[in-house]
Design a protein that fits this description.
- The structure is a single chain.
- With 323 residues, the protein is α+β, with helices and mostly antiparallel strands.
- It has 2 domains: 2-205, Jelly Rolls (Sandwich); 209-322, Arc Repressor Mutant, subunit A (Orthogonal Bundle).
- Helices cover 46% and strands 22% of the residues.
- It has 12 helices and 12 strands.
- It has helices at residues 15-26, 68-72, 131-135, 154-173, 177-196, 209-224, 233-240, 244-252, 258-276, 282-288, 294-305, 309-322, and strands at 2-6, 31-33, 42-49, 52-59, 62-66, 78-86, 88-93, 96-101, 104-109, 114-118, 122-130, 149-150.
- The strands form 2 sheets. It has a 7-stranded antiparallel beta sheet with strand order 1-3-4-11-6-9-12, sandwiched between helices. Strands 2-5-10-7-8 form a 5-stranded antiparallel beta sheet.
- β3 and β4 form a beta hairpin.
- It is globular and about 60 Å long.
- InterPro entries: AraC-bd_2, AraC_XylS_family_regulators, Homeodomain-like_sf, HTH_AraC, Tscrpt_reg_AraC-type_HTH.
- This is Transcriptional activator NphR.
- Residues 216-315 form the HTH araC/xylS-type domain.
- Pfam families: AraC_binding_2, HTH_18.
């Protein structure tokens, strides 16, 4: 599937609303701010392979804000790779800032709030990859989001060129299902290799191999202990054989804390359980992810996702009926 969407044939007064719908259809729901001038222009060439959607995006200056409430109401669970070709995009997520400009790319997680500011006209290739496809190849994707990666040399250069080539030829590729699936798998494999390569983060933010391994162990331990309401940073540090001070420093480098990482992991697991079985009692789900109090769980869930657990269950039921 491929095609073109453009504002050229849209009346000036209707372009803002039109472009907001385009962004939501091809990416995710955001609060989109366009300049007051009605001379906004945007064009998007899109194509889709199994597990991989590619769009060539060109637009006048604008900015976008993705809120937790947007993610809570979305059935999509994707990550976006921005391969800038011209202009700049300033990105903020997980306490980090990055600038996607020509010769770089940046990964953004649609399930985590982010800010995107585009101060000038831009031309960017966007690859949308499902979380399932990428997380099966890369552990702890939060380590790699909102980091500027140089695509001028080495493996990142290969990934950028490969994605661009697929985008240009996607109309011819899509006719063969097997060929399309094979190319999609290759592209996602290359992207995963690029993310975990030692040079994947820019100089000052580059984690050492030891720290990366420790973070992976920490995330894995958290996932294994979500059902224990007594599991806390002290027990996490002890299970890893490191001090609490070092544990806090480790999470600070990725814009988080051990306590918030544990809480967010509990809530993420709860949301997955609600989506999988929306008829389960909320109290049972809360206890299964380590919350002793259902009311505390409900408050924490709404603070993270913008909706209550019951409302989230209702959304999941409606989505299941529609599908």
């Amino acid at each position: 599937m491929h095609g073109l969407v453009s504002t050229d044939s849209v009346p000036l007064a209707e372009r803002a609303d039109f472009w907001r719908s385009v962004v939501e259809d091809h990416y995710v729901a955001v609060d989109l701010e366009l300049p007051r001038s009605q001379n906004f222009r945007g064009a998007l060439v899109y194509g889709k392979l199994p597990g991989l959607a590619l769009t060539r995006y060109a637009a006048s200056p604008n900015s976008a804000k993705r809120r937790a409430s947007h993610a809570a109401l979305s059935a999509r669970d994707d990550l976006f790779c921005f391969f800038a070709r011209r202009g700049e995009m300033h990105l903020q997520q997980l306490g980090r800032t990055a600038c996607a400009r020509a010769g770089t790319f940046c990964l953004i997680d649609s399930e985590v709030p982010f800010l995107l500011d585009q101060p000038s006209e831009i031309d960017v290739l966007v690859a949308r990859v499902s979380r399932q496809a990428l997380s099966s190849r890369v552990s702890n994707l939060g380590l790699y989001t909102c980091r500027q990666i140089d695509t001028r040399h080495g493996l990142p250069a290969i990934v950028a060129r490969f994605m661009a080539s697929i985008s240009q030829e996607i109309g011819a590729i899509g006719g063969s299902v097997d060929r399309a699936a094979h190319l999609s798998t290759q592209a996602i494999d290359l992207l995963a290799m690029c993310l975990v390569a030692p040079s994947a983060t820019d100089g000052s933010e580059k984690e050492s191999s030891a720290k990366r391994a420790q973070m992976i162990r920490a995330r894995d331990r958290i996932a294994a202990e979500l059902g224990d309401p007594r599991f806390a940073p002290a027990k996490l540090a002890s299970s890893l054989g490191i001090s609490q001070r070092y544990l806090h420093a480790l999470f600070a480098e990725v814009g988080s804390t051990p306590g918030s990482a544990i809480r967010e992991a509990r809530l993420d697991r709860a949301r997955d359980l609600i989506r999988a079985a929306p008829d389960q009692p909320i109290g049972h789900i809360a206890r299964s992810v380590g919350f002793a109090s259902a009311s505390h769980f409900s408050r924490a869930f709404k603070a993270r996702f913008g909706v209550s657990p019951r409302d989230s269950a209702g959304i999941a039921e409606l989505t299941a009926l529609e599908n």
